[in-house]
Amino acid sequence: MSATLPIPLVDAKPKAPRFRVAVYEGAGAEPLSSEVRTELVCALIAKGFSTSVVRPNGAVSPTNTGTLVVLGQFAEAKPERAEDGDAVVHFREIRNRPTAEVVALAEGIRAELNLPKPGGWKPWFPVIDYDRCTNCMQCLSFCLFDVYGIDADKKIQVQNNNKCKTDCPACSRVCPEVAILFPKYKHGPINGDVVSTDDIRRENMKIDISALLGGDIYEALRDRSAKFKSRFNKERDADKALEERTKCLVKLGEKLDIPPEVFASLPSMDQIRTKATEAAAKAQAALDMQDRK
Q1: Residue range 74-133, pLDDT digits in tens
Q2: CA-to-CA distance for 188 and 243, rounded, in angstroms?
Q3: Which of 66, 257, 279, 282 has its C-alpha lying 20 to 30 A from 95's C-alpha?
Q4: What is the pLDDT of residues 217-263, one digit of tens each?
């Protein structure tokens, strides 16, 4: 006999992976700190698990078939195992457990069920820390590859992670709130390392995209570099962001066999400014489209 799951399910029928892990902070569970959540999610992804985070007022999508491991700080005791049709849900309490131990819980369930080890995970994609994100849409304006979009609630989200270019963390470098993470990047804070309040205060600036693309930002950045000589500041570098963005264009040209002279002739400074203006308006256009729906 099927048991009703004691967590909300959204009314949808996605193609669920055979083995999934959900870090649950919805109804009936206490939220994790930003640092603990980031560390845990990065560790689960690095292990190869298909991982999602359920925040307050969120829901877990139906499993249909397979296994779902729900990790959380539950207000009340949960059954270790519950069935829902052809799906099986395993609950595990993670309060006061170190990250390595929590990951081991998920791995132990997989091994006990004799399921295949998780396959290789997508090597490069952005993760938005919504605790810091202010929905400024700067990432949507700056990204060349349409990785970002907005949902029905006009909230920025990663919509096309398959379009993200490996080793390009440019959007993270220009995010004014340090809210975009790349778990596979080698340096913090881009890889999810803890960021202090003072770091955020120093770096909390809205980079003018038109100035960045037009070149006027460089003098301002040199002045900032003279004031702040920290590892954090070196990684939050708009020069690097623009360089990485340019490299992506070059690689695209090579892939499509575009002659170098085409890139050499484009764009003019006026065209750059025009593109910058269009990029700044892109987020507003996306919001307007949502309003019309």
Answers
A1: 999 888 888 877 788 999 999 999 999 999 999 999 988 888 777 645 568 899 989 889
A2: 19
A3: 66
A4: 445 545 555 554 444 455 556 667 777 777 777 776 676 666 666 55
Cis amide bond preceding 14, omega within 30: no
Give the global pTM.
0.42
Residue 44's φ and ψ, nearest 5 degrees, are -65, -45
CA nearest neighbour of 98 among 32, 49, 48: 32
pLDDT at 29: 92
- The span from the CA of 168 to the CA of 170, in Å, is 6
Phi–psi pair at 198, nearest 5 degrees: -65, -35
Between CA 159 and CA 110 the distance in angstroms is 29
What's the token pair of residue 277?
């203006």
Q: Name the β-bridge partners of 158.
A: 148
**Would you state the pLDDT for residue 194?**
75
CA distance 241 to 174: 7
Residue 232 DSSP label:
H
Dihedral sign for Cα atoms in the order 231, 235, 238, 244: positive
In whole angstroms, what is the distance from residue 157 CA to residue 286 CA? 12
Crossing angle of the two packed helices 99-112 and 34-47, in degrees rounded to 10: 40
CA dist 185 and 191 (Å) reads 5
pLDDT value at position 223?
A: 56
Residues in Cβ contact with 135 at an 8 Å cutoff, skipping those fewer than 6 apart? 154, 155, 156
What would the two tokens of residue 171 be?
A: 């959007």
